[in-house]
Amino acid sequence: MPKIIINDKEIEFENGMTVLQACELAGFEIPRFCYHERLSIAGNCRMCLVEMEKSPKPIASCAMPATDGMNIKTNTSMVEKARKGVMEFLLANHPLDCPVCDQGGECDLQDQSLYYGFDKSRFKENKREVKDKYMGPLIKTIMTRCIHCTRCVRFATEVGGVTELGAIGRGENMEITTYLEKSMESELSANVIDLCPVGALTSKPYAFEARPWELKKTETIDVMDSVGSNIRVDTYGWEVKRILPRLNNNINEEWISDKTRYACDGLLKQRLDKPYKRENGKLVESTWDEIINIVCSKIKETEKNLVAAHVGDMQSMETINSFKSLLDSIGVNNYDFREKPFYINPENKINYIFNTSIKGIEESDCIVLVGSNPRHEATMVNARIRKNFVNKKTSILSFGNPGDLTYDYTIVGNTTEDIKKFVNKQNKASEIFLKSKKPIIIIGESALELESGQFILESIKKFLLDNNFINEKWNAFNILIQNASSIGAIDIGFLKISKKNNFEFFNKLNNHQFSLLYLVGSDNLDFTKKDEFIIYQGSHGDRTAQIADIILPSPAFTEQNGLFINLEGRLQKSIKSTYPPGVAKEDWRIFNLISRHLNNQDLFKNFKELRDNTLKKIKDHSDFDVLPKTKISQENSEIGSFTNESVLIKAIDYYFSNSIARSSKTMSDCRAARSKNLKNQTGT
Amino acid sequence: MSLKKVHDKQPETFEFTKENLELANNILKKYPEGRKKSAVMPLLYLAQNQNDNWIPLAALKYIGKFLSMPYVNVYEVATFYTMYNLAPVGKYFVQVCTTSPCLLRGANEIVKVCQDKISENKETISKNGLCSWTEVECLGACVNAPMIQINNDYYEDLDKNSMEKIVDSLTENKPLKPGSYRGRKSSAPEKNENKINGTNNA
Asked: Would you say residue B41 has pLDDT above 50?
């Protein structure tokens, strides 16, 4: 390996590293504004100047490739003077408004001017002033503060895949803006707020809410989709003030989607804080004693095969497990976690998870989407696919038309007939697929919802097994599950299906064969109420609460501890970061109350017992934060019947996809801005 | 220079004329496959020529679509280069060079004439609607300083008097001829124009 000397310390470095990276490796910090590990190199802030032997001038270390035998110094008076000079220039036009700036306390410019800067300015002229730009409902701009590092522009172009930000003008008049100040049309747009090293781009919903040092920070995970992005929840008292991404290279790198970040104001609104019962068509407040009595007598008097249960999209495994224990103890047989009837095969873990893993996408050389729109279903997965596309120009094929995915893809078929041809190696797509070394297939819920859903899943799996694309080293078979609770629910077995009928629950539900429905957080369950008696247990007064007869208030995901398994089968802990409003009780305690009333015994003595019990039920479980050790088996599942139909990808109302997002003002602003953009596009 | 402002009254649509479309396609041929975006500058110039010496937003969009590149990138290029006009200019667009050599040779007086005779502020169209002026950086004719460019022609070796005559001719819509106004042949020496260092063979 080549060697480099930095401050008289000789270290080895990998080929292709820059001087800045080598300095980091040697343990010397280099100040920087424009450089960012995950973005292309711009080299325009000049803050990272270091001294190189034989060079009369300091060099920009971020843009200089490290070579063998270089002698770099980062602690000389020349470097110090260069940094001071750059800092003085940067501050020449930067306003001194730190006391009213939201970036204060976490501002790179503030910190670095303290450590490397000059203590006064010699700039006597007028500072320049720049008009603020509109960039949508999430990003607040104070463009006078901008130091033109162009991180935001590079992020939007490279990672976001929407070239909407740009630097217009030149020299002193350079300004960062979106094209004619329209709102950014990306689900990752708010990441530019984190990237901005100064206070030019700040968070609009969080404007003037709190200072970073006042907030209590909890490192937890997100449940808005099944990716399980790692997040940090910042709370002030009861309120969740903001959500920030946490670095996890296996899942979300250091980005999160806008919904993850900004649905948090929905945690403050529309909350269920007291038990309610319906009297004469109106919901009236009640007490826990009374409400548990009503629930229990209702359960007792109803025949058990007329009782059905459902868990929603954001429930932890503990909730699902304790719920199932309750249902088992009273002999209820009808339960499911799916919000719409899509086919699943819970026999083996590889049948329902994203086997390639999110990081594995980067290695792939051919990606096939089957009835899936990853941009809306799992934004961070889509960002990985884009990363692969940008780096390797991978051919991406799609069955069905998912719309704009931020990268180029080819639609190779719109009907299930095309998929059948694909697995029978009768079309061009399968030719491309078989030629590649590390292909992946991503099957979306929309495809599994089709009449030939079973055929699609089973025949593709058979096709991959036959061609040795599912083996110990590479597993090309991926199901893109949409909800955070789904994989956990399958592992715990929260569904009743038979080999012949995958949709027993839905058939009975839609034929109104149930008379008592116990729904835990199921706000997206698609059904019309006839004369079912509905018990709703959840955190938000959303769709289901409106038709419920009994409402049991329970905490949202930030307010109780829980386990979640993300779409690739990775087990993660969600940590309680704040407490629920009113008299809401944790889900497992509510089930305990009911059990005590009905059977005179607790389901679980304490939370530890519940967690241990839950961990035991996880299939192929090894540890937290790792991929499951799946077993590949050639089990004989029926291929299922084939119907020729078109592959329709169901549109998701991205900003309104769950009860928290629907309660969020920020999300509805985003939704309005997006539909306004759509109107303008079709108008011209 | 300040940041160029986009004009508030914009035409709805823009399309290349038949001749220009042909020219544009010829320009495209100069660039290899996958590098067609590089044609953005000549195409912007073509659009400016077609549309009375300024580029409307519709043209930016049109060129963006033409080269399948994001609108904001076309916008960046159009705002970066000073020679693209994003607001209407007069029929006679006077560009006064005020870079050091011209400045030393009296470009300030030329600017003063423009202020008096065309319009108080630069980039404002004169009252009769025929003229507008602006200051530009070096136009590469320092030997003949001070100089101006009117549309595509250079007017050189100016002083206050000749500049006044030129501007008057513009306002009467009968522009004078371009070239040197001290009788020089292009940028040759003023006296003994065929001689360099006393020899005849220059």
From this structure: yes
Chain Cα centroid distance, residue A641: 35
> In whole angstroms, what is the distance from residue A543 CA to residue A551 CA?
12
Q: Are residues B96 and B27 in the same domain?
A: no
Question: Is A180 within 8 Å of chain B by CB?
Answer: yes
CB atoms A168 and B76 under 8 Å: yes
Q: Residue A169: its chain B contacts at CB < 8 A?
A: 3-4, 79-80
Owner of token pair 């309660």: A663
Do B72 and A169 make contact, defined as CB atoms within 8 angstroms?
A: no
State which of B23, B47, B80 marks the end of a domain: B80
Residue A181 has a pLDDT of 85
CATH code for the domain in which residue B43 is found = 1.10.10.1590
| CA separation for the pair A29, A116 (Å, rounded) | 11
Q: Considering only CA atoms, which of B81, B75, B85, B78 is closest in space to residue B132?
A: B85
Which member of B6, B75, B80 has the closest CB to residue A170?
B80
Bridge partners, A175 (sequence order): A168
Rounded Cα distance between A202 and A198, Å, is 9
pLDDT given for residue B189 in this prediction: 79
The per-residue pLDDT for range A194-216, each reduced to its tens digit, is: 999 999 999 999 999 999 999 99
Q: Which residues from A are below 8 Å from B70, CB to CB?
A: 163-164, 166, 179
Co-location of B174 and B111 in the same domain: yes
pLDDT in tens, A456-508: 999 999 999 999 999 889 999 999 999 999 999 999 999 988 877 889 899 99
Q: How many domains does chain B have?
A: 2
Say whether B3 and A164 touch across the interface (CB within 8 A).
Answer: no
* Residue A363 φ/ψ, nearest 5 degrees: -85, -20
Cβ-defined contact of B75 to A164 (cutoff 8 Å): no
DSSP state of B59: H
Tell whether A178 is within 8 A of chain B (Cβ): yes
- Other beta carbons within 10 Å of A366: 20
Task: Give the pLDDT of residue B202.
Answer: 45
Q: Which domain holds residue B19?
A: 10-80
Distance from CA of B37 to the nearest CA of A (A): 14
Tell whether B50 and B96 lie within a shared domain.
Answer: no
Whole-angstrom CA distances from A196 to A174, B150, B174 are 16, 44, 55
Q: Which residues of chain A have pLDDT under 70?
A: 635, 681-684
The answer to whether A168 contacts B73, with C-beta atoms less than 8 Å apart, is: no
Report chain A residues whose CB lies below 8 A from the CB of B14.
Answer: none
Interface A-B, measured as beta-carbon pairs within 8 A, has a size of: 36
- ipTM of predicted complex: 0.86
Q: Is residue B2 part of a domain?
A: no
Q: Are B3 and A168 inside 8 Å of each other by CB? A: yes
Query: Is A165 in Cβ contact with B80 (below 8 Å)?
Result: no
